Structure formats: structure tokens, C-alpha cells
Amino acid sequence: MTRTSRSTDELAEAYLTASRVFVGLAVQSLAAAPVEITLAQHRVLVLLASHGRQQIGDIAAELRINPSNATRHCDRLQKLGLLARQRSTEDGRVVQVALTEAGRRVVDAVSDARRQEIARLIEEMPVDERSAVLAALESFAEAASERADQDWVTNVW
């Protein structure tokens, strides 16, 4: 099999291997947060940073977790002052959550730490392979509907 005709299984295996690196980097970068948060809680903050205000049910659906788990994550993040809840002005029955300024600072600190470590690893890669890696990662992120940081729609309260 040629390098350009890799099977789905081979690609999945390569992404699985790479994902272990990324998960390790994600966990390690949480140390840059000014408060202690879990990886799942950080993901909630990133969802709010990238998509703006959300209902807890939407967060649960995006994370593919039970709404009660999403509520617990949001409760903890609210106690830390990283997100705030507010009733919708259109429908008083609906409660939305959004990042606070402190929450945005946490997202930025963790992202900056992660970006620096990833840049260090990229420096270890052969220069002539970087374009292919960039294209593959952009395509993968697009397939997963993940927004780049510069495309986030952050609304903070």
C-alpha cells in the first residue's frame, strides 16, 4: 500500500496514537490554570469560549454526557467564578451559562501553555512534513466541527 492510499483503519490508528500525545498535553497544560479544574471542566469553558452562551442541555449534548453531569461541571465552575448563569431575556424558563472574564483568563492561560508545548514538538518534526500535518489536522478539526481559536464567539459576563 502506498503512503497516499492509507486505509481508514491505518489513519484511525495513527490518530489514536497522536491523540494520546494530545491528551497528555491537555492534562499537562491544566497546570497553567490559576485555579484547579479538571479536563472535562476545561472543555466546558472551551465550549463557552468557542460557541458563546449555552444552555446546560446543549453543553451536555456537545460533550455527549448526561445533563446532570454537565450541571455538576457548571456548578463547580460557577463556584470558582469561571462561568455565570443568567435567565434568557426571551424565555424566562431558560437558563444560559457563559464565561466570566476569569473563565476567559483560564482558557487563555491553558491554551497558551498548550500552544507553547505543541510548538516545541513541531520544532522536532522534519520541516518538509509540516505542511501535510497541517492539512490533515485542519481537515480532522473541520470534520469534528471544532472551531479554531480565532473563530471563537466568546461572550463573557
TrEMBL record:
Q: Per the database record, which ranges form the HTH marR-type domain?
A: 8-142
> Which GO BP terms, alphabetically?
response to stress
Ordered alphabetically, the record's keywords are:
DNA-binding
User: In the UniProt record, does the keyword Electron transport occur?
Assistant: no
Entries under Pfam families matching the protein: MarR (PF01047)
Keyword hit for Phosphoprotein: no
Q: Which SMART domains match?
A: HTH_MARR
Which Gene Ontology molecular function entries are recorded, alphabetically? DNA binding; DNA-binding transcription factor activity
- PANTHER family (UniProt xref): TRANSCRIPTIONAL REGULATOR, MARR FAMILY, TRANSCRIPTIONAL REGULATORY PROTEIN-RELATED
* Protein's UniProt name: DNA-binding MarR family transcriptional regulator
